[in-house]
Amino acid sequence: MVLNFTDKARSMPVSPIFNPAGDDTIENRSIWFGNTTNLMQLNDVRYTWAVGLYKQMRENFWIPERLDVTQDVTDYWNLTDEERYAYDGILSYLTFLDSVQTCNIPHLKTSVTAPEISLCMAEQISQEAMHNQSYQYLIETIIPPEKRSEVYDFWRTDKVLKDRCEFIAGLYQQYIDNDSVENYFVALLADYLLEGLYFYNGLN
């Protein structure tokens, strides 16, 4: 669907919970602005890449308690003060990123009208929540007790980190406050920015 300037002012449509009059046929299915029943009709799909992506997502996640971080505890104390500062900041930043993703993706998902895409987004929501648990596990296991609150609040005290957090969260909040079509796709681009730049840099 091609957007025009008049689309900027109107609200982004939200899919009904159940729409018996919907049309999920492949030829009429679209990622947005479709007339979906909102049932997970996955026997025939238009976006076959989404099915492959979903299967890959199901194989590509970790459960924190299954990881042995004993060596990480030792390695943490072998870091320099500057390296520990960076490590603490990265953990705090990743916690923020996946926290806002857990909250934001459901808002974006409500306007998706292709069930195969919606399925991928549902899986992402689950994995973002699991990532949050993973960071908490690392903080509670590796970081000494007297420093844990400081790490959780690192984004409050470091100006660069706080500015980054406020920038990306502000783009998300803009859509929540004004659910226009334009703001929706700005929030979607912000989602790509978070995952493709912010999150990637935090892991490398």
From TrEMBL:
The protein's name: ribonucleoside-diphosphate reductase
EC primary class: oxidoreductase
Superkingdom of origin organism: Bacteria
Gene3D superfamilies: Ribonucleotide Reductase, subunit A (1.10.620.20)
InterPro entries for this protein: Ferritin-like_SF, RNR-like, RNR_small, RNR_small_fam
Quaternary structure (record): Tetramer of two alpha and two beta subunits.
GO molecular function: ribonucleoside-diphosphate reductase activity, thioredoxin disulfide as acceptor
Family of the protein in this entry: Belongs to the ribonucleoside diphosphate reductase small chain family.
Organism, as annotated: Pannus brasiliensis CCIBt3594
